[in-house]
Amino acid sequence: MDDRGGGSFVAVRRISQGLDRGNPCHSASAEVVAGSAAWLGRGLSCVCAQRRESDARPSFDLTPAQEECLQRLQNRIDVAYDSSVPEHQEALKALWNASFPEEKLRSFISEQWKEMGWQGKDPSTDFRGGGLISLENLLYFARNFQKSFQDLLRKQVGDRAMWEYPFAVAGVNITFMLIQMLDLEAVKPRTMVGATFLKFLSENESAFDLLYCITFKLMDHQWLAMHASYMDFNTVMKATRRQLERELLQEDITRLEDLPSYALLRR
């Protein structure tokens, strides 16, 4: 398994229905409890289909434009989060400001981060599973689909379990899952799903970020439909991946906005 993963999961216990948008003491609405099982990297090993090295896989030729778009996305994937880089810290601060505009971040090392669903006081340790792009995905979600982002962050929609998935850590897992599902670290796609996605990417440079938002909302939709609790996270992720693959392969899908699950972002 990719050694970028690691660390223990964090379960969030529901005490009240969502975090109060206007209450600076909203952290009292949840308890954060560390567990011994891994969420990042190792915890995703059962989400992505396993294959034997001898299994034959098709290969799809790319246009020069598609090759260029894939290379740019791969360059993003290759960047690890580095807390010593000012631009990385600014992006992390921007994520906090977009998430909790009513509450000032006191420090980059702070208990406040647990309110967002990071595992501890320093969120940089959780980016091992997804790199800088997982932070960029979260920030894109926060800026472009504010209502959906806040609904998921504050768990404001649906009949929730007593023990909920941690928002930010789940977001890193989603980035990691999409990279694997779309086979984005290969020279060229070896699955129809990957080849289909690259068509969207060549037409929309933000296609990966948009698909991330769709996937996060779909995952939460599956979570509620399955009446899941934190021990069911991998099961929910498997169901989310299967549904996303089915939608991407529908014949009448010509852009990501045509995916049935895209409508979830507009609710």
TrEMBL record:
Family annotation (Pfam families): ELMO_CED12
Bilayer-crossing regions: none
Superkingdom in the source lineage: Eukaryota
Domain called ELMO: residue spans: 87-248
Name listed for the protein in its UniProt record: ELMO domain-containing protein
